[in-house]
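User: Design a sequence. Structure:
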């Protein structure tokens, strides 16, 4: 069984066929999906949880978990009401993570200082609720600026919690991956691992230990080859798992076993009893 550790199931792009997408996911051997609760703005943070509740328990649908968080470029919207909403969501048993949160210096949006201050406030809420975090980190091209700021913040405000997290859609170098593992994080690879130009990223993935890895789709974005450019869906996480297997000289089944074990360990999930 594979787990897609990061998909935006609440995207409007699934409005017409979400159930069919989830059935295809199940049929392709994906047993669980972590549905990311950021919506398009903080007011929609709860949508992922609602989808979990709508589908969990139905036959031939993967087990759904959700997260809640504020995307880096929405940090200008953080106020007491947003933090209170996040806190309430993180208290729910299905909401196993806080994210995706982090720093994005690549796209135009919230000022960098606003992102850093916002991230620190979000970490405080996640720490109280004891939820691992899902990090989005994207530096300006040819720099390490967002990574440098991120590690400084995590060392001071997150390492002491011992809660760990996930470096979602990892796109950094080996040193950044190594530092992430040292912080108790898992490194999650998405469909971009399969792209022709991603050889440097594949070289990083090949050097990381299997007990530090996850796979994800980041659906509806970043469809893996040969579906690149199309709407992505969790069923296609197996293509990233196959690429990872090739890099590690292992089988897709071994990647599925390792990443599922890692997921369950990080989020304290006992698969025999559900969560
Ligand atoms: Zn995402």
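Assistant: Done.
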């Amino acid at each position: 069984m594979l787990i897609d550790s990061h998909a935006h199931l609440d995207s409007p792009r699934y409005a017409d066929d979400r159930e069919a997408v989830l059935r295809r996911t199940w049929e392709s051997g994906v047993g669980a999906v972590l549905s990311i609760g950021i919506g398009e703005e903080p007011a929609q943070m709860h949508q992922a949880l609602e989808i979990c509740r709508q589908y969990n328990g139905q036959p031939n649908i993967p087990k759904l978990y959700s997260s809640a968080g504020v995307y880096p470029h929405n940090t200008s919207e953080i106020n007491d009401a947003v933090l209170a909403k996040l806190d309430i969501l993180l208290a729910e048993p299905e909401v196993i993570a806080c994210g995706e949160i982090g720093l994005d210096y690549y796209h135009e949006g919230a000022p960098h200082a606003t992102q850093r201050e916002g991230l620190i406030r979000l970490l405080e809420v996640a720490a109280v609720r004891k939820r691992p975090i899902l990090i989005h980190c994207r530096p300006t091209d040819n720099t390490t600026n967002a990574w440098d700021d991120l590690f400084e913040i995590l060392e001071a405000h997150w390492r002491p919690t011992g809660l760990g997290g996930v470096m979602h859609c990892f796109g950094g170098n080996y040193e950044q991956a190594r530092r992430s593992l040292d912080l108790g994080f898992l490194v999650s690879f998405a469909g971009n691992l399969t792209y022709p130009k991603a050889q440097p990223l594949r070289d990083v993935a090949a050097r990381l230990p299997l007990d530090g890895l996850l796979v994800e789709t980041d659906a509806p974005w970043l469809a893996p080859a040969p579906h690149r450019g199309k709407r992505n869906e969790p069923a296609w996480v197996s293509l990233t798992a196959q690429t990872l297997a090739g890099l590690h000289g292992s089988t897709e089944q071994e990647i599925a076993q390792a990443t599922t074990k890692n997921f369950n360990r990080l989020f304290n999930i006992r698969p025999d009893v559900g969560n």
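The two ends are 17 Å apart (CA to CA). The longest helix spans residues 112-128.
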